[in-house]
UniProtKB/TrEMBL annotation:
The lineage of its organism: Bacteria, Bacillati, Bacillota, Bacilli, Bacillales. Signal peptide: none annotated. GO terms for molecular function: catalytic activity, acting on a protein; transferase activity. It holds the Pfam family LplA-B_cat. This is Octanoyltransferase LipM. Residues 31-241 form the BPL/LPL catalytic domain.
Length: 271
């Protein structure tokens, strides 16, 4: 059984969360750390937009501020995700790892086994989405509108969303596992032509996405969810997790990256 590093970074700001993911990618690429599984939360809650996603005219920046959230752009593609009451995970592993398929889609299947097992730990019967046709045809800016290949669904509704990028020979897959979702706040951050269309989108979303506490009888919190998915990833990926100590010097590097890149208007709004 292979040993991977485990980082439980708790609740950090959106910019710090993205900086830490990038720093771990860099360190793994340089051979400084083994493959990594990281769990984290967001404080304040954040709206992450995809690498190529347009902010102007799609995201209601006043709505983001009004709700006390912070916007940050991810390294990964896809549409906007509200990170509030959720467990977020990231996996950092080399493309040439013996267990990693070359195709993005098949790598999703391997890495998402950990998610499947994590839901099982919570006695939730999740399964992999296998779309009948190419998705992303809705034109929506909201990520959880549609499941993509091998994302986790429960009763036909999306229960976890993931995104992947590859840089410097390293795969970064990170994703959102909602514990509770406030649909009103979510849709307060997107621009619609009128209130009627917004309300229709909000109702449609409720039919397509689901959070953990919508499914189970006994509500769970962040810590319970974290413990379940830690066990799930160990089972699903057949790994043993060893805590990774991040040094003071490494934290300095993370804070600098957060400040210079992920807190900058140029990165977040001008792509």
């Amino acid at each position: 059984m292979e040993t991977w590093s485990f980082v439980d970074s708790g609740h950090l700001s959106p910019a710090l969360n993205m900086a830490l993911d990038e720093a771990l990618m860099n360190w793994h690429s340089e051979g400084k750390v083994p493959p990594v599984l990281r769990f984290y939360g967001w404080k304040p809650a954040g709206l992450s937009v995809g690498y190529f996603q347009k902010v102007q005219g799609r995201i209601d920046l006043e709505g983001v501020k009004r709700n006390g959230y912070e916007l940050v752009r991810r390294q990964t593609g896809g549409r906007a995700v509200l990170h509030d009451d959720e467990l977020t995970y990231s996996i950092i592993v080399s493309e040439d790892h013996p267990q990693m398929p070359a195709s993005v889609k098949e790598a999703y299947l391997v890495l998402s086994q950990g998610l499947l097992e994590g839901f099982k730990e919570l006695t939730i019967n999740a399964e992999f989405a296998i779309p009948e046709e190419k998705l992303n045809s809705t034109g929506s800016a909201v990520c959880f509108e549609e499941p993509s290949w091998y994302e986790l669904i429960v009763d036909g509704k999306k229960a976890a969303g993931s995104a992947q990028t590859r840089k410097k020979g390293v795969i970064l897959q990170h994703g959102s596992i909602p514990i509770n979702v406030d649909e009103n706040k979510l849709f307060d951050m997107f621009i619609y032509k009128n209130e009627r269309i917004k309300e229709r989108a909000r109702k449609s979303f409720a039919d397509k996405a689901i959070a953990i506490n919508d499914i189970i009888d006994q509500p769970v919190d962040y810590q319970t969810t974290r413990n379940a998915f830690k066990t799930g990833f160990e089972k699903g990926l057949n790994i043993e997790l060893q805590p990774l100590e991040i040094s003071e010097g490494q934290w300095k590097e993370i804070y600098e990256l957060s400040e210079k890149k992920y807190s900058s208007d140029e990165w977040n709004y001008s792509r």
